[in-house]
């Protein structure tokens, strides 16, 4: 299980696209946004997610729409299950059920967007137990890569990350930096990432600038105006 912190959606969508292009399924546990918004985010990066849905490669577990009163139908054809994050056991059981029904193991990826939703309902210890159980049942028992988003803008989220750091397999930090001219003219913000931890894989521990072009991650020098 890997945590992606801060600059999250664009990066994860690009990673998901790599899996989809390789014919591997992607499951998206949507907690922060509704399914329609998530689909639009894929489209913004020129990812025609509808084609992957038709091929049975992209699925959304909808953990947002429980908030919408009077909703009777699933919000998008990619929605395979609806859950209420106020019940962590139901969420985990639904995710396991979906994977078993689709006979998914030893391939694909699972995205949790985001863990902050659980921190708003539960204390840290219960949220940690969810991480342990999810990792055991999805990452370990079924050998599926799990990437979870955690926004660390609050003290409780920072504390949570420090407490689960020994449990998870990897941590990727992302942020936006702004280069300024000596005359204080502000230029275009630049994205950078740092692989803080990645178990069993050689990796650089330096901040690396990257760009995103048509749904692809480009790790390369970025020209900075001076």
From TrEMBL:
It holds the Pfam family ATPase. The keyword ATP-binding applies. Residues 21-221 form the KaiC-like domain. This is AAA family ATPase. InterPro entries: KaiC-like_dom (IPR014774), P-loop_NTPase (IPR027417). Keywords: ATP-binding, Nucleotide-binding. GO terms for molecular function: ATP binding.
């Amino acid at each position: 299980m890997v945590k992606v912190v801060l600059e999250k959606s664009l990066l994860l969508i690009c990673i998901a696209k790599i899996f989809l292009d390789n014919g591997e399924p992607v499951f998206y546990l949507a907690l922060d946004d509704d399914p329609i918004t998530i689909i639009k985010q894929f489209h913004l990066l020129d990812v025609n997610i509808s084609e992957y849905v038709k091929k049975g490669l992209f699925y959304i577990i909808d953990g947002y729409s429980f908030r919408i009163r009077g909703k009777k139908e699933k919000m998008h054809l990619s929605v395979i299950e609806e859950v209420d994050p106020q019940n962590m056991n139901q969420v985990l059981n639904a995710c396991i059920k979906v994977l078993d029904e689709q006979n998914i193991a030893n391939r694909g990826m699972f995205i949790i967007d985001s863990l902050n939703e659980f921190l708003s309902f539960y204390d840290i210890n219960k949220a940690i137990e969810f991480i342990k159980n999810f990792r055991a049942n999805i990452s370990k028992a079924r050998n599926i890569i799990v990437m979870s988003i955690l926004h660390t803008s609050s003290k409780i989220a920072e504390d949570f990350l420090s407490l689960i750091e020994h449990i998870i397999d990897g941590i990727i930090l992302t942020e936006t930096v702004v280069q300024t001219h000596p005359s204080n003219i502000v230029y275009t913000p630049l994205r950078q990432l740092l692989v803080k931890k990645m178990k069993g894989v050689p990796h650089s521990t330096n901040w690396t600038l990257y760009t995103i072009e048509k749904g692809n991650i480009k790790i390369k020098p970025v020209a900075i105006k001076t």
